[in-house]
Amino acid sequence: MAVDLIRYDLLVQEALRGVVRRVLSDTARDGLPGDHHFYISFRTHARGVRLSSRMRGLYPDEMTIILQHQFWDLNVTEESFEVGLSFRNVPEMLLIPFDAVTRFFDPSVGFEARFAVEDEITDGAAEKPEALRPQLAPASGSETSPQPLPAALAAREPEDAREAVEAGKADGSSELQSEPKVVSIDAFRKKN
After folding, report:
1. Is the pTM of this model over 0.70?
2. What does the alpha-carbon distance between residue 9 and residue 174 come to, in Å, rounded to a whole number?
3. pLDDT class of 119 with cuts at 50, 70, 90
4. Where do the domains of the chain lie?
5. Which CATH superfamily is domain 8-185 in?
């Protein structure tokens, strides 16, 4: 197989980050449309992430936030977004660069995009090309088998689930409403 000198994997990731940026910008301007809401996972130790030392202590590697009922001051720039959330009734402002985002999921329509972050790209690109391939949730009815959710959502401790509820859901439900099936972008390529 030929070496990908163009790095299509990175170009596709950047395009998908643009989708996330656009969706969050529209939400900041107009509010959440319909039943849409977002689960956003990000690396808490990534360059440019700003959160309190208390939150960094609770989530030293990765954190998932939910933007649904209880968030404020959503501000989106070209490189990052900032949002106010409440954790155990303590208000926090988080600044999250788009490069730190590892997963964006809108359960209302089953849309999901997963991303490799910079340390994965630089540390393991040669050994793990699969880690760099973005994954999309196809339209419902796909015949692919589901992939497991990231540990941040799949195996939450009760404490973490309560944090997620307090961070963005007023209805008290911390379970995902529909589990999308995830397929690699390779599944959409023409077969010879």
Report:
1. no
2. 32
3. low
4. 8-185
5. SspB-like (2.30.30.220)
